[in-house]
Amino acid sequence: MDRAWRPPRACDNYWEEFKHCVSWSNGFHHYYTYGTVPSCQQWKNDYNDCREWEERRSSEAKEALLKSERDRVAEQGNFTPVWELRKVPPGDWHLPLNQEKPQDS
């Protein structure tokens, strides 16, 4: 059964995420936005676990990858949405938008 299992992402994706995370531009953006330097070690750990799985089919590596992906998905739920999603469109959605007429010179 383990032979049919594949990591949630290709190993190269984990490596690319790690390289992006440690890049100067991402570090600057993260520091500007959150006031901290990003923690990139988990991406590197995930890459190493993925390679371990591909080379040796290690059950520890498989469990570590699954836990990391679950944690990543759960973390996304910690962010509040920027705006509240509507359940139905506004009542006047079909009316033309108010547009200003060009002013005469």
TrEMBL record:
Protein name as catalogued: Synaptic plasticity regulator PANTS
GO cellular component: synaptic cleft
Superkingdom per UniProt: Eukaryota
Subcellular locations according to the entry: Synaptic cleft
Family according to the record: Belongs to the UPF0545 family.
One Pfam family this sequence matches: PANTS-like
